[in-house]
Amino acid sequence: MLFALLVLAQETAKTDSGAPQGNFSNFLFPILMITFLFYFLMVRPATRENKQRQALINSLKKNDDVVIMGGIIGTVVSIKDKKDEVVVKVDDNSNIRLRVTRSSIVRILKAEEEEAAKDAKPSES
C-alpha cells in the first residue's frame, strides 16, 4: 500500500516532459495520511492498553485471585511495594508460594467477575 501511494505521488508530480516538478505538497499529502493512519491504528490503542494495564497493576491488593503470565492461577498473599514483588499462593494444601513481579500479572479474576456481574445486572429506571 505504501509503495502504491509513493508511485502515485511520483506520477502526479511529473510534467509532460517527464521531469519531476518541484511541488512538495503532492508528496506531503500521502505521507501525512500514512502518519495519521499509523497513529490512530497503532499508537493510540497501544497507549490506551498500557494505561489500562498500569491501572490493573496499581489496583492489585491482598486476597485477589490473579492469573500470572505463564497461566498459573493463585491468590495474592502480600505485596512488596519497594521491590515491585508480589507473593502469590498457588496451592492451599501444600502452601506453595511464588514470588513474581507485578508486571507478570495478566489478569485479576475477582475484578473481572464483579464487572461481569455489573454488566449482567439490569439497570433500574
Can you describe this structure?
With 125 residues, the chain is α+β, with helices and mostly antiparallel strands. It has two domains: 2-57, no CATH class; 61-120, SH3 type barrels, CATH 2.30.30. 46% of the residues lie in helices and 23% in strands. The protein has a five-stranded antiparallel sheet with strand order 4-3-2-1-5. It is elongated. The two termini are 50 Å apart.
CATH topology of the largest domain: SH3 type barrels
Q: Write down the secondary-structure element order.
A: HHEEEEEH
- Which class do the helix and strand fractions yield? alpha+beta
Q: How many structural domains does the protein architecture include?
A: 2
- β-sheet strand percentage: 15-25%
Integer average pLDDT: 81
How many separate helices?
Answer: 3
User: Could you describe the largest sheet, including whether it forms a barrel?
Assistant: 5 strands, antiparallel
Rg measurement, Å:
26 Å
Q: Which architecture of the largest domain does the CATH hierarchy give at level 2?
A: Roll
Q: What is the CATH C-level name of the largest domain? A: Mainly Beta
- General form: elongated
Low-confidence stretches: none
Order of strands across the widest beta sheet? Answer: 4-3-2-1-5
Distance between the termini: 50 Å
Fraction of residues in H or I helices: 40-55%
Number of distinct beta strands: 5
